[in-house]
Amino acid sequence: MIAPALPVTGSRPGVADRVVVLGLGAAVAYAALAQGGFYGRQAVTVLVLVAVAAVARVLTRRPVGRAVAIAAACWVLFAGWALVSGLIHADVGAAVPTAAVACGLAASALAASGLLAESRRILLSVVLAVAAVVALSCWVGVALHLEPLALPSSGLWRASSTITYANVTAAFLVVALVLAVTVVPPGLLTNGLAAVLLLGLATTMSRAGALGLVVAAVVCAFLVRDVARWRRFMPVLPAVAVAFVGLLPSLPVGGAAQPLPALAGLVVGAAVLVVGGRLRLRHLALVAVLAVALLLVLPTGRGLVGHAAAGIATTRLTATSDERADLTRVTAAQFWSSPLTGVGPGLLNLHYVDHTGAPVHAQYTHDEFLQTATETGVVGLALALAGAVALAAGAVRRRTPEAAAALAILAGFAVHSAFDFLWHVPVLPLLMTLAVASLTTDRQEHV
User: Fold this and answer.
1) b/e sequence 154-165, b meaning 16+ C-beta within 10 Å
2) Please, what's the b/e burial string for 406-426 (b: 16 or more CB within 10 A of its CB; e: otherwise)?
């Protein structure tokens, strides 16, 4: 069993520490509420905030953990290699965004490392508060058909939140969920937070997000063998199931929003969560079944629920995607044309004819490993992954719940990255890096 966590000790946070927390917290909050920091001006704002935090971290004069130092060096080298690859292909300008994000990752890892216990608690509290806002915007978007908090996709309204892309929102919420169930002390408020985050994740209906969550949960369960802790979260699943059923009438595209069933599901789900701590598993299951049955008999819900269930079964409960298979095929062909140096960051050509014979213009492969290898070659991919491996190695050395959370976050993020363009949306690599670095470094491990 993993031993109790050993918090970073030391004096009260000084001005520099507060600037670190303010800079990183503001970067995550701004990016999450401004489309993930995806567009140029937004990305620049996020990177400036991270840079301010990194400078403040240097001013604390505390040593940097070995794992973080190695990770930061790998990502700086990756940034340099991206520029070299761009120079080789006569378009350095196209490589600048990739290099800038890589340097931002190095800066965020440095800034989040070695935080004092109080500073780390505040930073993670900010992350969880932002995640709760994102998750609530998911529910509002689907319940009210409010764009761009929710957007039509494959015949269903899927939550996109303030980030405005469902799969990226799912990845954001998976990280927050891992933090909520492993780092925050158990209790009714923690269960409520976990339920809100899980409901938000469910409304995205992201298949890759669900897979990433399953992988992260398996890692957590394997490393943190605290059955009593996991049992305290038992009411969360039936509560979220009831709340999600209340949203089913609002899911079909073409139908009107159905806020009353959604609100009813939310209220009943909250009641299940509150009373769940005093019930056994079979009682919780019975309560959930009765609540779902009650929601299904509402006049506005019967026909639409069937329509929504059919849409989910045909579009969300399948592991195949012809569109993504086309993207993989086209990208792989370009990778083999220049496997060592790549075709150049930002220079991937995704103009092609798809499996139906229609011309397509795409921007991303939906597989970050393949796209990074194609754009920067195997050298670039190796440097990018080496940074994450260094952080993972630093976490493996520790037998604490925080280290388990860090490994779960890395595992879930890695799996999801094979199905979506997560690394291109600054809020996600930033969140992953600062969460892992803050959880796995202290002042006793340094270079």
Assistant:
1) ebbbbbbbbbbb
2) bbbbbbbbbbbbebbbbbbbb
In this structure, what token pair is assigned to residue 58?
């240097």
Q: Does 321 have pLDDT greater than 90?
A: no
pLDDT band at 445 (very low <50, low <70, confident <90, very high): very low
CA count, 13 A, side-chain hemisphere, 20: 33
Give the three-state DSSP class for 285: helix
pLDDT digit string (tens) for 66-83? 999 999 999 999 999 999
Between helix 401-417 and helix 368-396 the angle, nearest 10°, is 170
- Cα-Cα-Cα-Cα torsion 359, 361, 362, 365, nearest 10 degrees, comes to 50
DSSP for residue 252: B
pLDDT beyond 50 at 2: no
Q: What is the pLDDT of residues 169-197, one digit of tens each?
A: 999 999 999 999 998 888 889 999 999 99
Q: Which helix (DSSP H) or strand (DSSP E) does residue 116 occupy?
A: none
pTM of the model: 0.91
What's the rounded Cα separation, in Å, for the pair 216 and 105?
21
CB 309, CB 248: distance < 8 Å? yes
Report yes or no: 360 and 353 within 8 Å, Cβ to Cβ.
Answer: yes
Please state, in angstroms and as integers, the Cα–Cα distance from residue 316 to each residue in 176, 292, 311, 323, 366, following that order: 23, 21, 8, 14, 16
Residue in 191, 217, 203 with CA at minimum distance from that of residue 166: 203
Q: How many CA atoms does the CB half-sphere of 296 hold within 13 Å?
A: 13
Q: Which of 153, 154, 171, 150 is nearest to 162 (CA)?
A: 150
How far does Cα 86 stand from its chain's mean position? 29
